[in-house]
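User: Show me a protein chain along with its predicted structure.
Assistant: Here is one chain, sequence first, then structure tokens.
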Amino acid sequence: MNYRGPGRVRIDHKPHPQILHPQDAIVRVTRSCICGSDLHLYNGNVPDTRVGMTFGHEFTGIVEEIGPEVQKLKVGDHVLVPFNIACGKCHFCKQGLFGNCHESNPQATAVGAIFGYSHTAGGYDGGQAEYVRVPYADVSPTVIPPGMDPDDAVLLTDVVPTGYQAAEMGGIQPGDTVVVFGAGPVGIIAAKSAWLFGAGRVIVLDHVEYRLEFVRNYAQCEAYNFKEMDDPVLFLKKTTDWMGADVCIDAVGAEAEGSALQTITGRKLLIQAGSATALQWAINSVKKGGIISIVGVYGPTANLVPIGNVVNKGLTIRANQTGVKRLLPRLIEHVQNGVLNPKAMITHRVPLEDVADAYHIFSEKLDNCIKPVLLPPSARG
């Protein structure tokens, strides 16, 4: 896949990736996903997304070649590759903050490196391709357990850990009311995971009816269309006895709908880091002393956020890129035990050659698309 500018991707031929460091591996891709955060790149909302880049930070593949210092993988291993590119040895990796690795993206003061996610995240090519170079191959890539469906495995590279960490960061206590903004794949998993942490009530807000219906069935939660409400914050206050939710999760990020001001300034004029509508609603609808968990992606510039309400309400805000490696053992167990069923979210399996169509379908929310997976030619044989 080759990015040609906002709203334009196409298939192109690139040189075969090479081992550039003794700790590299070359992986032949078997599955790759299009993520909601890829749409922020596709639509031009993330700075320094350069023409010619290959997107894709959710992929599985077969190890084809390894550098001389790789010890934990061998040629022929089928691996799931977390979206974080992490060295495993720096100050932040040692704390389990694999999304903040200081070695893989040393010019940054915030995020670590991410496969296929603009030069703000290191400029590494991603997995919406036939082959990909995987740095620090002994750190994050994980051999897919015997018997695990690759469709489940590919969703453990980002979507499932991110939704799960969204619930974890919420500090959910038994009986809590949890509100999730966004019924995309991450919001769906966040809603499902909220029950695992003891939530007593889970509410999801979105504006796309087929996604609302999906999350009701998948996560056994309440789901409402905010476009049918005069004021979503007032609705949430009223349905929580005017107290507000205990925990609010922003699983939308830069392309949230629902506010003309936020849409114009954050999505059209790009004078802020995306539309912060979901975050504003979360701040205003959570209870005093409540917790906001943010996993929706915003660009690395300022946003119109009601910070005065955060202070006056005594809120705690927790946010980060997910440290996938830290969560994998627990999530693999949840999948193997049937607690989580990631592959049920996959609605479209698309040949890699048709990537432009896949982006259009996912971006425009056509054909009841929840999660598209791209299949390279060698994976369809």
